[in-house]
Model the fold of this input.
Amino acid sequence: MLKRNIIVLFVWILLVSVIKASSPVPSLELIVNSNTNNTYTLECGSSLGSSCNNIPDAINYYVDYIKQNSSYTLVLKLVDGIYKGSLNNFEYSGNGIEISTFSNSSSNVTILGDDLGDDFIEGVLNEQYTLTVSNITFSNFNKRFFILDSIDEKGSSSITFKYCEFKYCSDSFGFTAYSSSPKGSNSITFYKTTFTNLNINAGLITTPNFQVFINESRISDSSMDSLSYEVSSIDKCSISSVSFDDDCFITFRDNIGKSAIENSVFNEINGSKTRGSLLCIYENEIPPIINKNIFTNFNAHFLNSDQGNASFSFNKITNFSALNSPINIQLTSGIYFSSNEINPKMNFNCIFSTVKISNMTNLNNQQCYECIIYNNNDKQTCNTPTPTPNSSDSSPEPTNSSDSLPEPTNSSDSLPAPTDSSTTSTIPSQTTTTNESTHPNGAIENSSISYPLIAIILIVIAILNS
Done:
């Protein structure tokens, strides 16, 4: 009898855990309407007639509501209209928040940020923070859009912008977040989002230790310090008429895992510094894949690699100044160039590194010191006297094997895209180092069976066999 009761108890625990894991997270949906001035003590937003006057009022009610319903996600539906930034900026550190339009797919909700005295969103990210913003236009911001801090080393926060527009923003506008969690377990995604007429004196996306996905989006007619401090994926994007002031426009670093730029167009990207580079790759082991892009009409160095690895294949690199756009490869870097179309000839400088070139011309070795160069499998070692780079006082040995260099690819084999159930398009997945599967809107809890459940099953089997 005791054995039977134990088995029934374990089976009951197992069933409850599985049902809970597969159930959607409940939500509290509140309506916000800037066109009204309703009177309420705390509760608001349950209907159009009792809508919340602004976003902070809705969040205040939600914070009180989750004292008894802690697992609820907040869903804000904004009625068409103009919203003042100073009345709608907020500080939030809850589990999840979704902001979209009350009318489906409306494009008539605009938040103006010209009257902001502080950043629009501030908060500390907890373990599974989610923020999803859809179909909202943000205009005339001159403060940071958000500054968020993740102090949870196991954090897997997800921030997503879908079908949004950012325009006529200036000064310190940008997206800033910090994470102590390594290897990009936190993420920020821009999907089908437009940035136009930005004139900012900061980096647009400064998010160390975050995976950054920019997909099917457009950036144009803007100036900024840089596009992204770290990037995981740029796919099917159009980036044109943008000037940058930092040393690097786009930077790849090792702590973000897999990364790629694919199927995108970069046109008229201009660096203000003499040695400003369109792409920078620093101290990475997992090589980014730069594949099937068009880089044209740019005035900047094309690439600066310092202890970096990368694969460039099937790109078109055209209409640039050969004097102003060399490739600098130094300090044990490993770079692979295959089947790229380059016109006119582009120079590259190589110091203490390895370069592989195949199926292409117009890539000219201008300066070379202690490098191994493979040109269509023809191995050469160069020793042209060249000053030791300033970034190192030592002289590391060049890589002697081509096995460590990334092979080129003509198809996208990383960062797969799950289907977005709300549209016919897809949002690229956010690769993390956890085993959790995250719904694009953060609305579904982890549906996998945990290790404790597996242990329970093993215990049941052991009892049955005893």
Q: What stands out?
A: Helices lie at 2-22, 55-65, 85-88, 451-465. Residues 16-22, 386-404, 410-451 have pLDDT under 50 and may be disordered. DSSP finds four helices and 39 strands in the chain.
